[in-house]
């Protein structure tokens, strides 16, 4: 398979009054055509910022991409002019957001909002664009598509709005679809519908997907590779089955254990991760997870562990990774 | 804490209804009603946790609020310890309210930003005058310690705390009056995964220690299974299935419960890749215009003609297992 995207040592910082927030620190990953990458992490871990960088959409100021390369189909997006970048956005890389109600313009009809990029990027005339818009709404499973083009976003339910967003994102046949927690605001039955839809469309259209979520369950059913982020760092990366079978970072294990699972026996008590995520503006030199980690040794306070290969396609950033892995395998 | 079915329930709800009127015109003539809760009956025994699940808009939070009379029910009865709450007014109502408290969903909206958390937790004590003024501060600190907050932070304001800590403040406030019964209205859905488990463990610990009774409202089915003794599944203002948690998750009978369970993602790629999902079509109908017959018939994968005409009653299928579906025998 051909490589679609290669992110190398990407770093993004926000310069705020309370100090420099290092939102994304030297992260690297690759994505092949048609593949799915999952990014997992809690709020504030930098997962959304890391993908906004791909579209160069982080507000500047206060944000700035301070280092790295983003090679998309061989071109470094960070060196493109604004005009060239504009042609990449939506046409090549499209994005759907967590809250479709704030992502859609409330005073414009849904039809108008889908037609706009089609005219701009595909140079269609109004009639062609309208036909295509109706086709797209039909594709994402909105009944009575042509009539609903004249409706406003508030006339759709939450799940339907997310479908409209997906239709918009697909309008120019992007090679890469970025989904930033698109199902977090939805009910489980609607979430299942949406995931099903994206999977089906991905197969039909052959695009690659980056799916961001805090829910390890959603990622398990979707992604081929998974990145786990914590406080702006990638702390573990692996193939999806490998990650769930052999998690090797104490944070990943903590996340897996703190979720009750429907397929397992009911535990007497949940294993929680003590404490809370660190303030991203005041990170020390050590491992950002050290204060909450039961494996932490003195070295963890001093030095941030690098991401190191532990198995085929499996990378972990932890000084005590062998012990952690051994304990997990012992417990299984 | 399995409940003894023979003993009297702490909370008994009979045919509870809460309809919000839809009005039109300057005379505010009523033209319809949003039937948020439409005839709900259940019992909660002392020391147990009843989980209540359903999608947004199914009326689960409104049920919780109606029980506490935060919204006045349109119909039906609520008994706490055998006392009918309907006719209570003034002092008597206030006395009974001491015994039932609520933990709210959004820890950002449910704490007054202009009050220190010491005052927030102490306010119920002040209102009910349970503790002499001089001892109030000590009691607040005790409560803070109980929920895992540093008592030295009593003079800080809510914005200085994280979501998980704020939810602890909400829990301390609910506990201040030593209630018997607490309605937990989605207490963890605004929190991060790693923090959720902390709050759930705290709630369980407190339950064991003080013999609390919970109505735990949530949409996270895995979490509800973890914390509940019995679970009620709601759909469009009605309970469609009610049984103990083990039976519900092992042997769900109502097609809606089955679909809901099959939609929950499982964090295991091997299982996920082989799972057959029942994906429900469409979304929740409007509670102001529920379908004729069974409320679920518009989305039900197995509905027959009869379902579109006659509304099913909640029937007991086996001891302690109630289902509202014509097709379950």
Report on this model:
- The complex is a heterodimer of chains A (332) and B (329).
- Chain A has an eight-stranded mixed beta sheet with strand order 6-7-8-3-9-10-12-11. Chain A has a four-stranded antiparallel beta sheet with strand order 2-1-4-5.
- The mean pLDDT of chain A is 89.
- In chain A, helix 4 packs across helix 5 and helix 7 runs parallel beside helix 8.
- In chain A, strand 1 and strand 2 form a beta hairpin.
- Chain A is built from 13 helices and twelve strands.
- Chain A is of the alpha/beta class and 332 residues long.
- Chain B is 32% helix and 24% strand.
- Chain B starts with 10 loop residues before the first strand and ends in a 6-residue tail after the last strand.
- Chain B is globular, with a radius of gyration of 21 Å.
- Chain B contains eleven helices and twelve strands.
- With 329 residues, chain B is α/β, with parallel strands linked by helices.
- The longest helix of chain B is centred in the middle third of the chain and has 18 residues.
- Chains A and B meet through helix 7, helix 8, helix 9, helix 10 and helix 11 of A and helix 6, helix 7, helix 8, helix 9 and helix 10 of B.
Keywords:
heterodimer; A: 332 residues; alpha/beta; 8-stranded mixed β-sheet; 4-stranded antiparallel β-sheet; 13 helices; 35% helix; B: 329 residues; 11 helices; 12 strands; 32% helix; 24% strand; globular; disordered N terminus
